[in-house]
Amino acid sequence: MNTVKKSLILLLFIFFLNSLTAEKLGYALSGGGARGFAHIGVLKVLEEEGIHPDYIAGTSIGAIIGALYAMGYSATELEEMCLKLNWNELTLDTHQRKDLYIGQKRWAPYGNAVFELNESWVP
């Protein structure tokens, strides 16, 4: 029994050590308004080359692109989405908060865009 326990601990240690030394790839996406959409083109090329990140982070528009990419949207889907969205409606506050109903006020800080979760990658 003692040998089995030692073997199991050694196996877990090797597995843990391998995960620490394995190479990981992360993307850091910057902000910059409309310039941030250039990330979609970069993601598209990396996808075509079969390069996928282990981690993704971003700020401002890079955070939005990164979050949608992490949700499972492909670069092509992101491109289509960005071309279809009415960015003026999304970013400009067309209604004063005092004119909204209570239910509308709850979601008002989150903007007008609604994105569905792409669950095709969920095991």
SS summary, helix count: 6
* Strand line-up across the major sheet: 1-2
| Helix content bin | 40-55%
Mean pLDDT: 78
Shape: elongated
Note the run of SSEs as H and E. HEHEHHHH
- Low-pLDDT windows of residues: none
Strand content: 5-15%
Radius of gyration: 21 Å
Sketch the major β-sheet.
Answer: 2 strands, parallel
Structure description:
The chain is built from six helices and two strands; from the N terminus they run αβαβαααα. 50% of the residues lie in helices and 7% in strands. The longest helix has 20 residues, at 2-21. Strand 1 (26-29), helix 2 (38-48) and strand 2 (55-58) form a beta-alpha-beta unit. A two-stranded parallel sheet has the order 1-2. It has 123 residues and is mainly alpha-helical. The chain has helices at residues 2-21, 38-48, 61-70, 75-84, 87-91, 102-107; strands spanning 26-29, 55-58. The protein has one domain.
In summary, what is this structure?
This protein is mostly helical.
Name the features.
123 residues; 2 strands
Topology:
Elements: H1 2-21, E1 26-29, H2 38-48, E2 55-58, H3 61-70, H4 75-84, H5 87-91, H6 102-107
Parallel strand pairs: 1-2
Helix pairs in contact: 2-4
